[in-house]
Amino acid sequence: MRYLFTVIIAFFLLSCGEEQQEITAGKVVDNAIANAGGEKYKKAEIEFIFRKHQYKSTRNGGEFKLERITSDTTGKITHDILDNEGLRRYVNDSATTLPDSLVAPIGNSINSVHYFVQLPFGLNAEAANKKLIGKDSIAGKEYYEVMVTFSEDGGGTDHEDEYMYWIDTKDFQVDYLAYNFVVNKGGIRFRKAFNPRRVEGIRFVDYENYKYSNLDTPLHKLDSLFQKGELEYLSTIRTEDVKVKIND
C-alpha cells in the first residue's frame, strides 16, 4: 500500500511539473490573440474614431498601413500614413516634408493608438519580449501576469518602457494592463477594460485609465493597489464607431 501511495504521489508531482512546463508567456499570448480575433487581424481593415481623429489600419500578412486623419478649425486636413516603407504626411492631399525631429514622435503616436486599440494582436511583434511573471487574482478572477518589453532593434522609442498584461486563465481575455514610460518625465498607468464587443469577430474594449505617483513601483503590484483604491483615476478611453472588413 505504501508503495502504491508513493507511486500515486510521484505521478501527481510529475503531472504538475509537466503542466507547469507547458504554461509559457508565448502560449498565453497566443491563446489571448486567438480568443480576440486570431488570423482575422492579419487581413483586416479596421477603422475607428479616437479622440475625434479618424484612424484606419490595413494588413495583408506582413504588410501593414496605419493611418490617421485629422482636421482643424480652418478646414486643413492632415493625413499621416505609416507603413513598411516609413512615414508620409499629406496636407489637403498634397505631400509635405516632415522635419526629421518629428518623424519618430508622429510615427510612434500613430503606432501607439493602433497598438492599444488592437490588443492583444501586437504582443506577438518580432521586437516583443514576453515573460510569464506568475498568477494573481483581481475581483475574484484568476489571471496570468505577462510582462512585455521591446528590443531596441525594432522596438522604437518604446524599448525603455515596460508593459504588464493580466490575461484570464480560463478564457484568455485581457481585462487589465499597465505600463510605465520615460518620456515627459515618466509615469505609470493602469487600465481596466470595459465595454467588450466584437466587430466581425475581432474583440474591442474601452478603458478606465488610472495613474500611480510612485514611479519605482513594480507593475505587478498595481493590481493590488487598484483593488485597495490607491490608484488615481485619470480618464475614460473610448474607441468609437469601429468598422472592420476582413479581406479574402
What do these coordinates show?
- With about 250 residues, the chain is α+β, with helices and mostly antiparallel strands.
- The chain has a single domain, classed as outer membrane lipoprotein receptor (LolB), chain A.
- Helices cover about 25% and strands about 45% of the residues.
- It is built from five helices and 14 strands.
- The strands form two sheets. Strands 6-5-4-3-2-1-14 form a seven-stranded antiparallel β-sheet, with helices on one face. A seven-stranded antiparallel β-sheet has the order 7-8-9-10-11-12-13.
- Residues about 1-15 have low confidence and may be disordered.
Summed up:
This is Deoxyribose-phosphate aldolase. The protein has one domain (26-246): Clam (outer membrane lipoprotein receptor (LolB), chain A).
Please give the structural blueprint.
Layout: H1 2-22, H2 25-36, E1 44-50, E2 53-60, E3 63-71, E4 77-83, E5 86-91, E6 94-96, H3 100-117, E7 128-138, E8 141-150, H4 152-155, E9 162-168, E10 174-181, E11 187-199, E12 202-211, H5 222-227, E13 232-237, E14 240-246
Antiparallel strand pairs: 1-2, 1-14, 2-3, 3-4, 4-5, 5-6, 7-8, 8-9, 9-10, 10-11, 11-12, 12-13
Protein name: Deoxyribose-phosphate aldolase
